[in-house]
Write a structure and sequence with these properties.
heterodimer, A: alpha+beta, 5 helices, 8 strands, 28% strand, globular, B: alpha/beta, five-stranded parallel beta sheet
């Protein structure tokens, strides 16, 4: 993954908050995650990535932030399932929007969401995970990018298989 | 006018429903959370308009567009997706969708797209 790939996600996250009609989010300097870092919160979502790159994109946020976003966009039901769904949708939107720059070979899965005290978010061990801290209305959340370039031939085979499945 | 909203996100389904179903809305609305579910609802509800996500479990939105238009070619379909590459929008239109709206969207941009969709 290159610096410019990372910038795509930083810009995409800012764009998400702006275009949702929310106040601007502050995006802090990205860093490489260490095992001792606490970078996940009550609600997390992961998007699997395949094709030209392999890995995943996470978004994780505390309940208070998720509820405040829901209130701002007019969603009155703060049930756990809806909070998790919103976090999944943010991960999906930021990842999907990244295809504008990374191309249609950057293939994404549907989101998988985790919440509650027993959530077990695991990170791929064979690649660095970049954490982009996002602060919105005083709440801190994380966009976590774990991606590795795929050798061209393998990416091509994976794409063909996915097309065949459709 | 009957509208079917297809998206695997409950938050998005509810958001679209609030936007087009509030006040004295002319729309009767049903929802579905994936392509397979959408076809089942479509067959009994026979909507004139469908809003369609692309990345969904069970059956993706592009396959669902094909299936819907083979049942009722006059159905007007607005694809609403986060996939921002040009190829996705072009493919959706090539399959027969009349409009493409990129997520995230505002209530205003959704209303505008639906107005455009109904112009013809």
């Amino acid at each position: 993954m290159t610096d410019s790939d990372l910038k795509v996600f930083v810009a995409g996250t800012s764009k998400f908050f702006r275009e949702m009609g929310l106040s601007d989010a502050e995006v802090s300097t990205p860093f490489v995650r260490e095992d001792s870092d606490r970078v996940t919160y009550e609600f997390s979502a992961v998007i699997g990535v395949s094709g030209t790159q392999r890995g995943c994109v996470y978004f994780s946020a505390p309940r208070m932030m998720v509820e405040e976003i829901m209130r701002t966009v007019g969603e009155p039901d703060f049930a756990d399932e809806n909070c998790a769904d919103l976090v999944g949708e943010i991960a999906n939107t930021v990842s999907g929007n990244a295809r504008e720059f990374l191309g249609s070979g950057f293939m994404i899965s549907v989101p998988v969401v985790f919440y509650g005290p027993s959530q077990d978010v695991r990170f791929p061990p064979d690649m660095p995970c970049f954490v982009i801290p996002i602060i919105w209305n005083g709440h801190r959340s994380s966009l976590i990018i774990c991606l590795k370039d795929q050798p061209k031939a393998k990416a091509g085979v994976e794409r063909k298989l996915e097309v065949a499945e459709v | 006018m009957r509208v079917l909203i297809v998206d695997d996100s409950n938050i998005i389904r509810r958001s679209i429903q609030r936007t087009i179903g509030s006040g004295e809305s002319p729309y009767e609305i049903r929802t579905a959370s994936n392509g397979k579910d959408a076809l089942r609802v479509f067959d009994e509800f026979l909507p004139e308009i469908v809003t369609m996500d692309i990345t969904m479990p069970e059956m993706d939105g592009i396959s669902c567009v094909d299936a819907i238009l083979s049942r009722r070619p006059e159905t007007r379909i607005l694809v609403i997706s986060a996939l921002a590459d040009k190829a996705t929008a072009v493919e959706a239109v090539r399959r027969g969708a009349q409009g493409f709206l990129l997520k995230p969207f505002t209530p205003e941009s959704l209303s505008l797209e639906l107005t455009e969709l109904l112009k013809d």
